Amino acid sequence: LLAKGELEQAAAQFRAAIQLQGGYVDPYVNLGRVLAAQGRYDEAAGMYESALRIAPADARARAGLREVQENQRYTRKEYSSCYLRNPPSMISILFLGRKSFLVLDLT
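RE: above sequence
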């Protein structure tokens, strides 16, 4: 499912696997990949951190966590940059990789 791009279905399968057998690293790593692909970096980081609690030396979890942390930093930096360039009453749209953000300040 993940390879086919069916991310929601893949996420549901990995969540079910975690519920059944939470002591295995693979479902956490794979769910982290799905969440990262959806731009849900905070959740993905949580999955990779859970994987590392089970297997601290897992290279896939370490690499995935590094990647999402980098994406989180980039996203925050771009958001801040865009917000500072535009008056708060304007709509700012950021396109960051596979994710786009619509930023509204209704004050």
